[in-house]
Specification:
The structure holds two protein chains of two kinds.
Chain A lengths: L2 H17 L4 H14 L4 E7 L2 E7 L6 E6 L7 H16 L4 H12 L6 H18 L4 H23 L4 H22 L5 H9 L5 H12 L3 H33 L2
Antiparallel strand pairs in A: 1-2, 2-3
Helix pairs in contact in A: 1-2, 1-3, 1-4, 2-3, 5-6, 5-8, 6-7, 6-8, 7-8, 7-10, 9-10
Chain B lengths: L1 H20 L7 H21 L5 H21 L4 H8 L5 H12 L3 H41 L12
Helix pairs in contact in B: 1-2, 2-3, 2-4, 3-4, 3-6, 5-6
Classes of the chains: A mainly alpha, B mainly alpha.
Amino acid sequence: MTITQLSYVAMEMGVILLANGAETYRVEESMHRICLALGAKEAEIFVVPTTIIISVTLEGEVPLTRTRRIHSRKIDLTKVSELNHLSRQISYEPTNYKKLVAEIKRIDTIPSYPYYLHVLAFAFISQMFTLFFGGSFMDSCVGFVIGLGIKLQMDTMRRFQANIFFTHIVGGLIASTVALAALGLGFTSNMDTIIIGSIMTLVPGLAITNSIRDIIAGDYLSGLAKGVEALLIGAAIASGVAVPLSLLRPFWGG
Amino acid sequence: MMDYLTPCLYAFGASLAFAIVFNIPRNKLLLSALGGMLGQLVYVIFQLVITNDVLPYLLATIAISLYAEVLARLTKSPTTIFLAVALIPLVPGGGIYYTMLYFINGEIDLGISTGVHTMLISGALAVGIIMVSSTVNLVRKVMLKGRSKIGKKLKYGKKT
């Protein structure tokens, strides 16, 4: 395997891992593992949530460095799981370049769950958490509607590449507006429960987990970046919820 | 009794839906959703015994982290799959909301005390994960070291 092929394979793998929600240390470890397994003498890898830099040295060749910037990130843990498995497998059984590229391509094109299921899942989360925080069945139905709304709104805004904080502000805004409207129309009496239940859909669970795990692994840079992201998302949700509450309260009398 | 058990079922449902949102592999959906239920169950049980209301969160987080680490080793998949999903029902969404609500109603004192309480709970979640995963890492390193006397190549990545 030539140095170009080796760095290409490692880079592709790292990009898929990072863009689908793997922790920074996992990306670094997997790339390092695959480089050594494919015969590199040395491999230096630096990963932050938006960039990967890899520098490979083969015996008797000039070192090669590649950089890749990650622009869009989503969450698909199936791909992370499969690639993690692949990187361990390579360390034990040798394989050739063509097979490896085909395997990575196969993993990259694994379909995620169908779109309608994602929308329903969002609505269901919102409904379940409304019940979880002590709402009645009627409240949970309002929660279901809010969940649908939030998912559709977030996807629409993502298509136009709105920034993540604005997306969450609008999400919180939708949650509290619909809940206020339901209160005003007399569908429900505990608006608070509905709002809490439906903003749980927006909670950045993976960002929180990854930031803690990165900090433990010693990647303070990525850990802090993700932690700040999670905190700012929390603040964005709260401020989005606050706007209709403070503006409309005098009129609805809630 | 039912009052304590139904939230666990709701947590299970919500975790299952979150597992779909995170695109977790089909055969691990149920396992990761069970983690969410386990966390809530441990929280509810310790809430009855302990009067402090931050400590049950810590114990629940320790329970789900242990569950996640064990299952990750058993199913040979990343820990995050089980941990991220199980953690969400423990996130203090209500605390964030009431903090904000007190502030916009002008009740600054109540807002600050609720805010600090929410921060403490988040801290407990972080500490729980850190305690378990550092311990597991240490144990793994010690075990690898014992094994590497036979074959040094088992220690992937790191040069010795």
